[in-house]
Amino acid sequence: MSDPDLSDLDAFMAVARARSFRGAAAIRGVSASALSAALRRMEAQLGVRLLNRTTRSVTPTEAGQRLLERLTPALDDIAGALDAVNSFRDSPTGTLRFNVPSIVARHILPPIVNGFLAAHPGIKLEVTANDTFIDVLAAGFDAGIRYEESIERDMIAVPIGPRIQRMVIAGAPAYLAQHGHPQHPSELLRHACIRHRFPSGVVASWELERNGEIIRISPDGPLIASTIALEIEAAIAGLGLVHIFEDDLRPALASGALVPVLADWWQNFSGPFLYYPSRTHMPAPMRAFVDYLKSEQNGRGQ
């Protein structure tokens, strides 16, 4: 019996971590059929089933889980040894895979990514926008960007982007002329409000704050959407009030298409963080990104 080669072992780890052939294929940039063939080859060589496959999920068997636990540090050591050579280059090479919230992909990452990739032409960056809470490292990403309350405590977190953000409420001038300006959050229950549904299926409540007093409400309205652009256009059309990140509404507020509502109740919160696992050896592309991020922050005096 021949032993599996490193590429097949790597394929097994990718699928076992992502719990999906299709998900692992997207992360690795290969076809799902190629990963499936690698797994069949490995199982035939070892004479044991490593993954349970159904139409809905892929999970390691007991043998597969034991193999995954033993392989992870070994292959990480191999990757670290190979990447150590990378540190001797003037500019490192390799691929970085980030999982980030859509608001970060829209407004925070573009200037950072543009400058970083211009400074490091040998690095390829893959960014996946995802608003659900997932284990981004288990899914095969090198790092994630999330807000503080959803970051595991054993991760290294580095600030990225503005340190203060806020949610704002706005409405079209025509809507407010017809229905009036609410003076207190409780009055929002009498207004048409455009709601946002997260990928998890949860419809976001509206949270407002002033002088330490926090009010959470679940208003009603003619539209619930999972697309920010649709929600903004509906508000501009006068269908109701909208409660969204200030960065998303800034153009409409600047043009006068929307006007602020209950501005003294807009809630501030901490900006996002880049996070990655604490380990002795950081891959050269990841080190380059963290160093670039810190230099940009120092340049802005953050």
Structural notes for this entry:
The chain is of the alpha/beta class. The protein has three domains: 6-85, Winged helix-like DNA-binding domain superfamily/Winged helix DNA-binding domain (Arc Repressor Mutant, subunit A); 88-163 and 271-300, Periplasmic binding protein-like II (D-Maltodextrin-Binding Protein, domain 2, 3-Layer(aba) Sandwich), CATH 3.40.190.10; 164-269, D-Maltodextrin-Binding Protein, domain 2 (3-Layer(aba) Sandwich), CATH 3.40.190.290. Helices cover 40% and strands 24% of the residues. The protein contains ten helices and 15 strands. The chain has helices spanning 6-18, 21-28, 32-46, 62-86, 102-107, 109-119, 173-179, 228-236, 246-255, 284-300, and strands at residues 51-53, 58-60, 94-100, 123-129, 143-146, 155-159, 164-171, 193-196, 206-210, 213-217, 223-225, 241-245, 259-261, 267-270, 273-277. Strands 7, 8, 11, 12, 13 and 14 form a six-stranded mixed beta sheet that branches. A five-stranded mixed beta sheet has the order 4-3-5-15-6. Helix 1 crosses helix 4 (62-86) and helix 2 crosses helix 3 (32-46). The model has no long low-confidence stretch (mean pLDDT 87).
What's the architecture of the largest domain, going by CATH? 3-Layer(aba) Sandwich
Q: Please write the CATH class name of the largest domain.
A: Alpha Beta
Give the percentage of residues in beta strands: 15-25%
Number of helices: 10
Alpha carbon gap, first and last residue: 58 Å
Helix proportion? 40-55%
Taking pLDDT < 50 over at least 5 consecutive residues as the criterion, the unreliable ranges are none
Q: What is the count of structural domains?
A: 3
